[in-house]
Amino acid sequence: MVAHTVTAQQAGGDFDALYRAPFAVLGIRTQGESLAGVDYLPLDVAPAEPKNRFAREVIRQIESYLTDPCFHFDLPLRIEGSHFRRRVWQVMCSIPPGQTLTYGEVARRVDSAARAVGGACGDNKIPLVIPCHRVVARNGIGGFMHTSGDRETGIKRWLLAHER
Q: Per CATH, which fold does 83-163 belong to?
């Protein structure tokens, strides 16, 4: 049986790099010298070399994280979102590798509601670097990327296991 390979365009984007991680192909988007997005694409998407120096640096840091889950990303980020979402993402960035907070715990820190925090987590355009996978439900793993599908929660489980 021959595996079908999906192109970057079929996967829905123009990426500056496509990097095969153990859990997904990461579609990297940059704007100048800033990271603008990381998409978790299916594993059948063909990897592609970085198109620019900054995308190479993003890949280098992702590889460092995959080798050492305590690696601290040091990338300029192009963050677009409301003041509320930025506060939620800031809390996410404060959660150390190997630890989690519940949606409710994050909500208390930003004086909001757990459902609103879940929305902000799902709207995170730079997952992995802004570690939304470290936010979980009170009694379970919770959703990931605005869904509770097997592929998405499988990625979240992989990342949490990697950090433990």
A: Arc Repressor Mutant, subunit A (1.10.10)
* The model's pTM: 0.88
Assess whether 132 carries a catalytic annotation.
Answer: yes
Only one residue has tokens 């496509």, namely 18
Report the candidate in 82, 83, 73 with the shortest Cα–Cα distance to residue 130. Answer: 73
Tens digit of each residue's pLDDT (9 = 90 or more) over 90-127: 999 999 999 999 999 999 999 999 999 999 999 999 99
Residue 8 has pLDDT above 60, yes or no: no
Task: From the candidates 70, 93, 121, 132, give the one annotated as an active-site residue.
Answer: 132
